[in-house]
Every structure is written in C-alpha cells, then in structure tokens.
Amino acid sequence: MSELDSVCRLQAEIWGSAEVAVPATLLKVMSGAGGIVLLAEADSGPVGFAYGFTGRSPSGQVYHRSHAAGVLTSARGAGVGRALKYAQRIEALGRGLSRMVWTFDPAQTGNAHFNLNLLGATARSFRRDYYGIRSDALNRGRLSDRLVVDWFLDDSELAALHHHQPGARRSVPVPDRLRDSSAPGEMKDAYRELRVGLEAAFADGMAAVAYDRENGAYSFATLPPGTPGSVE
Predict the structure, then answer these.
(1) CATH hierarchy code of domain 2-165
(2) How many CB atoms lie within 10 A of CB 95?
(3) Which of 113, 115, 121, 190 could form a cystine bridge with 178, CB 3.0-4.6 A?
(4) Where are the domains of the chain?
(5) Sign of CA dihedral 77, 78, 84, 90
(6) pTM
C-alpha cells in the first residue's frame, strides 16, 4: 500500500492538483482485478508511474486500457517514461493482451513525439472534450480534446501494420499559438482550429502515424490493407 500511496502522490504532484489523483485503494483493487499498476523509483525515491485496466471492445476484443502515466519533471529525459511503457507492454502480453490503448492531448506535442515516433503507436480516432472542463495545473484553460492511440503489442499485429508502406499522406499542423499562448481564450480558439484538421483527416479514413517536430505537424496516412481494426 505504501507504493500505491506513492503513485497517488505522484499524480497530484505531476498534474498539480490532488483532485485528479486516483486513490490508492482503487489502485489496489485495479491491480488485484487484473489491471496493471507500475511505479518507477530512483535513488531519490518515486519518480514515475503508469496504470490501467482491462477493456473490452464492442466486438469482444480484450485489450489493456492504459489510463494514466507520468514522470516527475526532474526525472524526464532519462528514459523513465519509455521504460514504464515497455514494462506495461510486457505485463499486458503476459496477460494474453495484444493491444494497448490510451488517450493524449493533441496539443501536447512532446507526448505526440513520444507516442507516435518513439513507441510507434498510431492514433485512429479523436474525441472532443473527452473529460469535460479540467482545472488541474496542466489542463487549466485548455479543452480536453483527446487523440485515441492504438499500440500493437504482438509481433503479428506489428508485422501487419508495417509490412507495407502507408498510402496517401497528409500533414495537419498544430497552431503555434496553441503551444505558446497562455491566454485561455486564445488557447481554446487554437484547439478549435486544430480540431478541423484532425477531424477532416480521420473522416477520410486516415490515421496519425508520426509527429513532425521540425514542422510542428501531425503526419497522417492511410494504413495498409490487413491492419487490425481499432478497439475504441
């Protein structure tokens, strides 16, 4: 329980608000019921966490739904986040699960680079105002729009995705002021601008497969035939 308490405290510190922290008692039940709860520690103490639970798609496919992961600012850039995600992958595969799904804010371009470029996940759907109005330090003044990520864990699924080069491509830029502005009104207008590009690409059957850091834009592509379907 002391380690689960550490996960709870890390959530509050990283997000700047205790109200977003899932209590240790729920994490205990989640872990005992087949979920995955991970804690990363360094010599200085707890520095990161990840947790999630088992989900089931409308068609009956079972997968791991990663709900939250975070690393203290002081420990970022040292590979902690990647180590947590690969530890999640190992645990999920050990439970017979071949897919992991989570969401992220499309304006958080560091997360876009991590999820799409480093992990090799794909985003195949978009949710407007997924969490409603958020008041924690990281989300205050922003809309809670989210991209839904699919991460293929099984070698056969990865092969089906990467055997062929993706088809037609499209670039969807992230407005500069969305990354730079601290004014809530300007942030929300920029979110709405980004929505237009993202929703148009998804409506055309494309998926976000990479993030172009040099140009500040999502790279969309049509996935090759045989790509496993999305679970959410």
Answers:
(1) 3.40.630.30
(2) 12
(3) 190
(4) 2-165
(5) positive
(6) 0.90
